[in-house]
Design goal:
Blueprint lengths: L8 E9 L5 E10 L4 E5 L6 H9 L6 E6 L2 E2 L10 E4 L11 H11 L4 H14 L15 H13 L5 E5 L7 H18 L2 E6 L2 H7 L2 E6 L2 E6 L1 H6 L4 H6 L4 E10 L3 E6 L4 E7 L7 E6 L5 E3 L6 E11 L3 E9 L2 E8 L11 E5 L6 E3 L1
Parallel strand pairs: 3-8, 3-9, 6-7, 7-8, 13-20
Antiparallel strand pairs: 1-2, 1-4, 4-5, 9-10, 11-12, 11-14, 12-13, 14-20, 15-19, 16-17, 16-19, 17-18
Helix pairs in contact: 2-3, 2-4, 3-4
Amino acid sequence: MNIAESPLVRFSGVHKSYDGSTLAVRALDLDVRRGEFLTLLGPSGSGKTTTLMMLAGFETPSGGEILFDGKPITRTPPHRRNFGMVFQNYALFPHLTVGDNVAYPLTVRRVAAHERASRVAAALEMVRLGGMAARRPDQLSGGQRQRVALARALVFDPAIVLMDEPLGALDKQLREHMQMELKDLHRRLGVTFVYVTHDQSEALALSDRVAVFNDGALQQVDTADRLYEEPANRFVAGFVGDNTALDGRIAAVQPEFAEVALDCNATLRGRLVGSAVSGAAVQVAIRPERIALRDTTRPNSIGATVEDIVYLGDHVRVRCIVDEKTTAVVKQPIAAGPPPAIGARTHLEFPAEHVRIYA
């Protein structure tokens, strides 16, 4: 394997326990490719932030090895790793100017003053804050402070930039704007970014690949489109994007596909993920935008009653009752016409190629 093909970072059998018994991260094998934007995604307590902190050097693994460019760094202190870091709370020095905040990593590295000035100016231009070096953090908006933190993380040409929920403190509109800026900056610089978030839509919008964590274990690493269209298990299907799930048991198994007898006394066909034998309890999952509302019975459809309709601009969200304990959500584009009225009987068509069946 040549240098271009080898991973920049490799977690090999890494695990972490804070109390000696419970594992915050378990048996982690994960590669970070050179120049990619990799997001660590998961709910609170899933192990994503612990993984980032171990890579940064602020936490030490209880076992396993972390390699950077093929060399072990598991016991290398943070200041010797040459990694940039951006935190949610910005961690700016309030008594220093913007320029001095950005210059701080160069100051501690004893970079000459004239070179510091030119590199700070370049870093501020990079994040579109040119001309603001003399301001103080309290004179900036939240988005501007976040850009200062990013400039500080980039000013010393780090080998990799680590970001821990960096947009979490921003409002929705500003967060979405900053997402576009981050993606554009990554594209222009080609620096490797490792990003932590619990926001699924943010992960899908930003990343070349997403690593999904749950309960300390890595569930799936994939591109955004494959993660959404081909979830590896029930957790990923339910956590990444909206999902309609129905319980049942395997009625018949065919190559790639299976038929499921649902608890609501209907049968659906879909792609079997993994393996399951006849009679096994399974969950049928499908994205709400893949379900079609029909006036009459169609192949691979079930009857339902419309319970609620929510208008969301480009689509309506239709919640349907399948039986006393089961609901299904449908996203119907406005262009498809008006949905059935609340209380009306309808038929939900589940295209078999978009249905996933999980044991």
